Every structure is written in C-alpha cells, then in structure tokens.
Amino acid sequence: MSDVVKQKEIICVICPNSCTVTVKQLKSGELVMEGQGCKRGEQYSRDEFLDPKRTLATTVRIRNAFIPLLPVRTSVPVPKNKLNEILDVLARIEVKAPIKCGDVILENVLGLSSNIIATRSLDVDLCYKIACEFHG
Amino acid sequence: MIQKETDVVIIGGGPAGLAAAVEANSAGCKVMIVERDDGLGGILQQCIHPGFGLHEFKEELAGPEYAQRYIDMLGKTKIEVMKGTMVLDMTPKKEIFAINENGVVKIAAKAIVLAMGCRERTRGAIKIPGFRPTGVYTAGTAQRFVNIEGFMPGTRYVILGSGDIGMIMARRLTWEGAKVEAVVEIMPYPSGLIRNKVQCLDDFGIPLYLSHTVVRVHGKDRVTGITIAKVDENWKMVPGTEIFFSCDTLLLSVGLIPENEVSKKAGVKLGKTNGPEVNQFLQTNVDGIFASGNVLQVHDLVDNVAIEAKKAGKMAALAVKGMKIPSVNAGDAVPLVAGNGIGYVLPTKINTIVDDALVKETGTVKISLRVKKPANDINLKVKNGSTEIYKKFYKHMRPSEMIIFELDPVVLNGIDKKLPLEVYIEPKEQKEVAKK
What we know:
heterodimer, A: CPE0013-like fold, 23% helix, B: 436 residues, seven-stranded mixed sheet, five-stranded parallel sheet, 33% strand, globular
C-alpha cells in the first residue's frame, strides 16, 4: 500500500492479552488498524499513535515529615514528550508537612491541564514537633 | 508480658492484611492487625508508580494512594493496629508471641490470617560468583532508597531480571537521572507484565537482553562493571557471547519468596508455591489459620491480593462465629494437581462435601495458577480421572500473568473423590481456532 505515510506497531497494554496492533496512517489522514482485540484497544492504539500519554509518578522533597520525600503523580495522563520537562519542574519543588493524600501540589503543570497531586498523607514528624515546642 | 485477646489476628498490615482486616471486621469480629513496620501499607508505600486498583476502585492509583484508601476504611472501624510489633512465634492453639518497644506481647486469637507477604531473592539465592563489592542491591531495596529514603544507590546500572519491580526501577532510575545500560533476563521472554516492558523499557530505549544472564561482577570495593552472556536452553552460558557493561550498580529482580518462617512455627505445612497448603476456603492444615496475599502465592496485581485477602478475612470471621470450615486434612478433600504446562495451581486441595450454608457464603471455587511458559490459543481444562469437568479457551497465557478461574461447586458433587483433579492446558485444535 503506497498511500501509507506512517506505520507503527503498538503493543496494547489495556488488558493482559497484550495485542500487537499495527496502525497505518494513510495520505488522507485516516488510520487503518489491525490486530486490536477490542474497542478499548482500538482507542488506546489510536491515542498511542497520535498522542501518547503517560501518568507521571515521582517524588518531591518534603520538610518536617518523618521521611524526606513525598510521592506525587499527575492527576491525568500527560503527553509523553513532556515528562522530562515536568520532572525538571518537580525537582525544584519542596513542600511542608502536613500533606494529605490527594492534595494538589502544583496546579495545571506546564499548562497541560493536569495537576500534580500527593499520593500519600504525611503528618508533621513527632521529632520536629517536639523540637519546635522546645525552641518556641 | 502484655496479654491480649481478640477474635481475629491478622499478621501483616500490607494490602492483604488491610483487606482481610476490613472484611473480618465488617463480618462482626474483633480484629487486630500486627505490623512490624512503623506504618501500614506494606510494600505499597514504596511502589509510587500508578496502576493499582484498576479493578477494585476503577481508577489508576499509585501504591501509597491505594494503601491510603484501606487505611481510611480502617480508621472508621474499631480494628486495633499494633505497629512496630514483630511476631516471633505462633502456636497451633493460635497464640501469638510478638515483641515491640513495650516488651513481649502474647495475643490469644480465635482465628488467624497470615498476611506477611514475601521477600526478595538475593544474590546468594542465585549464586552469582565473584567478589562482594558495594553496589549490588535487590530492586526492592533500591526502590525504597529512591522513593522513600531519598538516596540514589548508583549512577550507571545493569538490572538482572525482568520482573515488574526490575523494569519499574529501570524507568524510575532513568527519571532520577541515572543511566540504565541494560535489563538482563535468563528466560527467553520477559518475566514481568508486558505493560511494564512497553512503558518502562521501550519508552526509554533501554535494551532487554533475553536468554542472557550475569556471569561476572567486576570490581573489588565497588562494582566497576558487569559481564553478561547468552545462555542455552539448559541455562548454560554460551562461550563467546559475553558482553561487558561499565557500570557501578547491579540491581537484582530475580523473584520473590513467600515469607513463612512464622507459619512453620505453628505447624503450617507449605506447598509448591513456598506458601501454605490451603483449601478453597484458604484454610491451612491448622484449623483456624488462614492465608492470603503474597505469603500464599506471589501475585502480580494488588486487586487480586485484596480479593483473596477479603475471602480469608471472611472465612476467619465465619470460623470465629462457629461455622465449621472444612479441613484440608478431611477425607473429602481432593488434591488439585498441576498437569501439563502448569507451573503451580492453588488451592492445594478442594473439599467436596461442603455445607449449603457455607457454599452460600463462598460461592464459586476460585482457582489460581501460573503456566510454565507463554502459550497462545489454548484450552485450560480440569479433569477428574478421565472425566473433563471444566474447559475454557484462552487466547494468551503468560507466566507473568496469574490466571484465575471459577469452578461451580455443583460439578464437584459428581466427581470420583478417590482421584485428584488435574488442571492442564492443551493446544486448541486448528479448526476450532480458525472458526474463532
């Protein structure tokens, strides 16, 4: 087929079947797919072909908690090619305990309509609390 | 010695322990969780990646978030949680001896749910020869360092084993600025989920060397490099296929072992999974002691852990309430054996004479298994002697993905109880496949 402008093999990760889907984009812009096992797989393969997205999960620094890191993630998947930029932003962030699981740490990161949310509740560390009381 | 008494004691406050506790509590029992760490959630707290709870909460949660859901549920109950408490001994009479900062605690329970999870296989377990330099870690240890403690174990990595933790760590380390040179797998296929291969290796161009293993760790004080080589079908190294990687760290993701030291002390018999032998009610050979989660069999999805643990919690509660839970040792318990192509199958035995009231509570008989190697277009079958009692078609089966299917208890009535139930796979006939 000469009117295929772009072709990609995508392994569908929607379910454990792991279908290998061949996606071809025709000159007209139309996508032709084969190998997908279901509707959700079709949608996944289309998205993965046109605009692959990922949920980014990482950590940011936290002060006054019993551990130095707070796990966070993007509230909705973000474009794959923006992950490194987001990581750069998050590397410069430091938050303070207490934090509740689900708290928004950063709104609308890089204008991508995804918030960075905390995925763990971390209270103020007891040692820190005692030190504060001691020093006033 | 501090003495306590309760209905159900759950050993372990990870995903299995939490789910079992919530279920036993809602069945009306007094429940206590004994957890050796300072907090609940177990290994989920260091699994900060998303992908948990898709089945249970219909959302893609990070590990700590999933744990938090259960911790919140627990907060609304009267379940007693003993943190920082390590169980040292357990008797068949269901007495538990534990230790914490207040000293020795003795807990008398009416039923126990084992939910201790598993631990990682180490370098010693796979016998990599050579010096013992700094820089060889299990993947889970590295995961704890990077995600919780805030340390990077090294800068350039080779990862041995393509289990899920290994692949997820490859991505995590890359994001934290490290270079992952290679992931090396002795089997001819990845041993973790395909999703993880796609999103953790392929996305970053990290090469996966299948049918390869580490043959030498270089360096005396610190790892300076790793040599890998191809292996043949007998896992013997093929000379001349060596590849050297300059690196400072080797991570091992080479399997998990259910942690059953405490189980053995109470006389709990272990089976092929290195976990307890159980019947369909998840009861071990010791009446009143139940097992669920990774202490029973290593799972790949936390949702399945929760389902299994809820069942164990419910069974423990029913036992406390006086319902007779059939024994694995009873004469009506028929062994369930792994036939052609099956690595292992659980439960170990299926009781065939079950009270109607209990059937009503438990429903179908859930059977879980792993195949020995990947296979396509196959029938999964169960036979009793020469009688086929179950058949289901599977397009794909992989060792990395646990298969769970359900048997109608009704079919068990008619079987020959002197013969085992054999679970096996066979290729579907070509004609049948073509029709599909």
